Here is the input.
Amino acid sequence: MTRPLPRGPAAASATPRGAGPERANPEGANPEGASPEGASPEGAGPEGAPPRGTAHENASPAGPGPGDADVVAGIAGEITPEGADALAAIAKNPGRALIALDFDGTLAPIVSEPSAARPLPGALSALRRLAPAIGTLAIITGRPARVAVELGRFAGIPGLIVIGHHGWERWEGGELTSPPPPPEVEQARARLPGVLAAAGAADGTWVEDKSHALVVHTRQTADPEAALALLAGPLADLAGQTGLDCKPGRLVIELRPRGVDKGTAITALAAERDPAAVLFAGDDLGDIPAFEAVHALRATGRAGVAVCSASGEVTALAGHADLVVDGPAGVTALLVRLADAVRPSPAH
Ligand SMILES: [Mg+2]
Here is the structure.
């Protein structure tokens, strides 16, 4: 019934604004990833990001409804006028909103052992408060959907949709739709140990097998940046030879099927749910297609806001965003503001 999703308007998306050269982890390793250097306490964008007004300055003058002026004015950090309009639209009409969130680095701080990742408690409680009011609430992650549901303790959140493997899988109402992994992944899986050995992969390099994708991690090596750089060429070659994409991330390189990314995922969700306003928040290079999809959706008459969960490891993302917040804590603060603004019905 689902997946892979067709490539949608994200492929011809809005122009990135003020982005510098994309590079993973330019600031050096940050093993915990929770308090990134370089992200200001106020969540302002890094150098190179386009100028933004304050959230208050950019609040739409066109007749804010109950709660929406509050939510915009209450956001710490700078925001584009389009982003401010989208937050106001979400607060004004939450039933026609789509809120989609990445998991690692956005709801959950980055940790050395992926199975230890957990959402910040405040984020989880804010999602529970938002769920009854928001038309579509979704997690879009590179993890297997069921793993994200378990780590996030999302099963008790009514109506929540969890899109896994960047769009291959969908969990909703306790049911998982998951097509088998494409054969290209099996071919790469068989060859990957030999490729790593031949490249002289550093001690501590390890492979996370996500069934639909293979992720090589270097965070646990003595020099994670150098260890990752050493493998970039050989892994790109392996991806090319097996017909996979080779995608860098936060001290990782992921080999995964082509043609499916978070941009196609959010575009398909928007086509299905027809929201009037869309919010997506993410922290890594793999979230850029979703940011671009949000901007493309604006061209179709919807309001949209792309939120960067800032870290010292990935600075290329901020230039694509309408709002830059300080990591998972900043995302949590935003979700709390939205939950306060939308005022779920007393029945919940
Ligand atoms: Mg992430």
Summary: The chain has a mean pLDDT of 82.
